[in-house]
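job 3f2a | input accepted
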Amino acid sequence: MPIIEVKHLTKEYDLGTVTSIKDTLRHTLAKIQGKGTWQRERFKALDDVNFTIEEGEVVGIIGHNGAGKSTLLKHLANITKPTSGEVIVNGSIAPLIEVGAGVNPELTGRENIFLNGAILGIPKNIIQSKLDEIIDFSELEQFIDTPVKRYSSGMTVKLGFSIATSMEADILIVDEVLAVGDIAFQRKCLTRMENMINKQGRTVLIVGHNVRQLERICSRMILLKHGQVIFDGAPAEATKLFLDETTLAQLDGVRKTNNVIKPSIDTNEIEVRAIEVTTNKHIDGTPVCPLFSDFHLQVTLYVPKLIKNVEINIGLHNPEMVFMTKSSTSLLDSPIDLIAGTHTIEMIIDKLSLCPGSYGIGIGIYDRIRRPLWTGNQLIWLLIEASSEFATKLPQGTLAYMPAQWSISDGRNTIIENKNPHQPLKNMEL
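job 3f2a | predicted structure (430 res):
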């Protein structure tokens, strides 16, 4: 039997507001008497959602803002009721829906630990035995007897996460919590999540915008769009669909602005007039580069007056704004002086080995004291593609492929040898 069953789940909300209680009563009375047809516009946050989750599964729920992710989790945690359909949960739930949810600000951190345990039906002696572990993980020992209303948002989420992940509930529901707090605590949370998944076999539902992080820890991902499930399956495929959709939206935005290059910093000392990727293939105006092909980029600059010792950085970033690679003229043998006039910069990357997907171009231009003169990201987008046969052989859960020469022997004979690091091994049987 599945531990969670979602059947035809629909949630609707009324849009708009009525100006006064008097208007509300008047419209309601008219509707009862059949004298009025006034009604608010309805919005479907969830629209006929169906899926099941088996015990021990780790399921990521992704989608853009407004897709219905948090609304879905609130139904699973029985925080809100559906307009139609049903959610069947066969087990206890420890929800951590948002920062501060389930935490009473008037109580101390210690009192909240016992309160949350009691809500989950955990005996007081069991909570007491876990108390030191929860306090230690939360890093709040100094403040544990202070009312939570005096905590920062980061301290509150540390307490909430520590409580939720320490209690012996059958199902853990987490919403965006791994994105809150300092980097060290985020890593600590991720390690605990992986321990719960790999060693304890807990059922976990987690929402997040860091799809690469979810891909790493989830066995399955559900992609929502406008309140509907548009994909339910392998994390790598869900991530690709999500990022491809993100890039298409960004490309659409670029087209609507007539491809105007918009810097984030511009001191008017340099003008970037054109950015072009040299390739024979385009899709809707977007350059397409085959995996392991040479990447050619050309940038045209105009400089009103001489600028000495200029540093130029050019990089490629993914739709999540993580730079996958950068190159800098600071590594060249001679300094660069830009005289007044037009300049053409050409950059070539041999055998580009980023995994197939969408990438933006980022450029930063600095003076001799590294003062930014002109910087910008998402200046243009490109697609890196591979044949479907080759793409299936690429390792999953990575952002870049590491070309390597391989040689495998059994101590007597060389079983396989590949001296071209940019081609897959033809004989995969050992």
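job 3f2a | The longest helix spans residues 235-256.
job 3f2a | closed
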